[in-house]
Amino acid sequence: MIGRLISQVARDRSAPATIAGLTLAILLAACTAVGGRVVLTATPLPGAAVSPAASIDGPTPVESDTGAYSNVTALLDGVCYDFLSGLAGTTWAWASPDEVAAFYDAVAESEQCVGAVARGTADFDGQVLVGTVGAATGCDAAFRLLDVKDDSAAQVQRYVVELIVTPGCDYELLEPLILAVPAPPAGDTAELGVITP
């Protein structure tokens, strides 16, 4: 396919291409292979009027903000949508590698995901992992850490996060989050408190 494109351009190098009202010529000299992929660079014709780049209207994407705590959500990479959707609205805490392994075992035993799911590892030296999966309808979603509450009477360290959703789309979104937080004192637990729209 790329060979046909290059061949077609080589036959008629002088034919400009019009993209969004901007006259461009694809220069063969700018077509290079980089790391096994082809990179095409479009250069305006000399003397061509170049208009400013058009802005793309649409919702502003949101990004997770976990404050000073490490976001280790990558542990869920490869876990399929079907399994994660079953976790929507729940929270959990993992205090050891065995608990993470038990999670991956549950994913495999569910047979909801096609093929084996890659198993990640986490550092539990002085920390525990707290997680959740948020479900929403919108264009984009992300978690933001709002507060850390130490309820010594209940022996709970609660990390309060809010699910921020960009409205305007009908996409069914799943937003997982796993935070690495300091291990609580002996006898205390760490948990997530989740605020949803």
How does this structure look, described?
The chain is of the alpha+beta class and 197 residues long. It has two domains: 43 residues, no CATH class; 126 residues, no CATH class. It is 16% helix and 42% strand. Strands 6, 7, 8, 9 and 10 form a five-stranded mixed sheet that branches. A three-stranded antiparallel sheet has the order 1-2-5, with no helix packed on it. It has a two-stranded antiparallel ribbon with strand order 3-4. A hairpin with a 4-residue loop joins strand 8 and strand 9. The longest helix has 14 residues. It starts with a helix and ends with a strand. 18% of the residues are buried. The N terminus is likely disordered.
- Radius of gyration equals 25 Å
Structural class from helices and strands? Answer: alpha+beta
Poorly predicted runs of 5 or more residues? 1-41, 51-56
H and E string: HEEEEEEHEHEEE
Q: Taking all residues together, what is the mean pLDDT?
A: 79
Number of extended strands: 10
What is the terminal-to-terminal distance?
46 Å
What is the molecular shape?
A: globular
The biggest sheet, with number of strands, parallel, antiparallel or mixed sense and barrel status, is: 5 strands, mixed
Give the total of domains: 2
- Helix coverage percent of residues? 10-25%
